[in-house]
Design goal:
Layout (H helix, E strand, L loop, with lengths): L8 H10 L4 H4 L3 H17 L6 H16 L12 H21 L1 E5 L14 E5 L5 E4 L2 E5 L11 E5 L7 E8 L4 E5 L2 E6 L13 E4 L1 E2 L4 E4 L2 E8 L2 E8 L19 E3 L4 E5 L9 H4 L2 E2 L3 E8 L1
Antiparallel strand pairs: 1-2, 2-17, 3-4, 5-6, 5-17, 6-15, 7-8, 7-14, 8-9, 10-12, 11-12, 12-13, 15-16
């Protein structure tokens, strides 16, 4: 049962600084809370650089409401400082749970995945089933993955040489595949059991098909369509640049530009082939390093 009351100015300022939109629950303005909360979610998704503005706006607006509050009406349960903080903690726990186990946000730092992804683009990454559950660098849980990936899927993963750094690349070869990358073209000898292979029962070749009718974008820079299984995507090839084969990662008993993907690992490339630091240079992506697949990009 509520009582007649008036918001405490000091509590309003503190809550406005710490829990931002939730301060409007304390001053008994739930509609403002909904409005500011939705604005905050929108800013987090589309313009995260402006999140800091809420630290200034919310306490000022809350202070104005509190100063004008006439002390009339019954005090609802959420207009107590402890209830406001409790609502904040519940919502924060829900948000963290979603970002740890289901979907998370990432930003593209470079142009190695152009033209599909460009610097500054935002990504929603689907983490379900990958088992690599982490948030802000903290590992919450790590269990075996239950997701089957395909050639052409775009993944976000922890860079094998430094797991504190996240990369985004496209899968071109699956566990067990033999991949050859020569003169900017890909050929894959698919891994398969004898009962599922064609020909001699030991191998099944797959060309990552590229439409050679490319589009010239700039001096030497061409846009091509590439097909990997059911996935079609655009890539960039700079014909003025030679493949940096001297920098390639090499496997024992394999030629330069030729790799056999170990079981439980993937071979990835960037779509901007001549500006991508990928599996050609540092090796394979362990299944356990994969965070998720790109679900939405803008």
């Amino acid at each position: 049962m509520g009582t007649f009351w008036k918001p405490n100015i000091l509590v309003v300022i503190v809550l406005g600084l710490i829990v931002q939109p939730f301060v409007f629950l304390y001053v008994n303005k739930p509609r403002y809370f909904v409005l500011y909360f939705l604005l905050l979610i929108g800013v987090m998704i589309f313009s995260p650089d402006f999140i800091g503005a809420f630290i200034l706006i919310c306490p000022i607006h809350g202070y104005i409401i509190a100063r004008r509050y006439k002390g009339q009406g019954v005090r609802p349960w959420f207009a107590r400082w402890w209830a406001t903080i409790l609502c904040f903690l519940v919502m924060l726990s829900l948000l963290i749970t979603i970002r740890v186990f289901f979907f998370d946000l990432f930003r593209v730092p470079a142009n190695s995945m152009s033209p599909f992804l460009n610097p500054g683009d935002k990504l929603v990454v689907d983490k379900r089933g990958f088992g690599n559950y982490r948030y802000f660098g903290m590992q919450f849980s790590k269990i075996p993955a239950s997701v089957n990936l395909e050639r052409g899927d775009v993944i976000v993963f922890q860079y094998p040489k430094n797991t504190s750094i996240d990369y985004v690349k496209r899968i071109v070869a699956l566990p067990g595949d033999k991949i050859t990358y020569i003169n900017k073209k890909i050929q894959i000898e698919k891994y398969c059991r004898k009962t599922s292979c064609s020909g001699d029962g030991n191998s099944d070749y797959l060309n990552i098909v590229r439409n050679d009718k490319g589009k010239l974008l700039d001096k030497g820079l061409w846009l091509y369509e590439e097909y990997a299984g059911n996935n079609k995507y655009d890539i960039l090839i700079d014909k003025t640049k030679k493949d940096r084969t001297s920098k390639y990662f090499t496997q024992e008993n394999s030629k330069v530009g030729e790799w056999i993907v170990p079981l439980g690992h993937y071979f990835v490339l960037g779509d901007y082939r001549d500006k991508s630091f990928d599996s050609r240079y540092w090796g394979f992506v362990p299944q356990g390093n994969i965070i998720g697949t790109v679900a939405i990009a803008w």
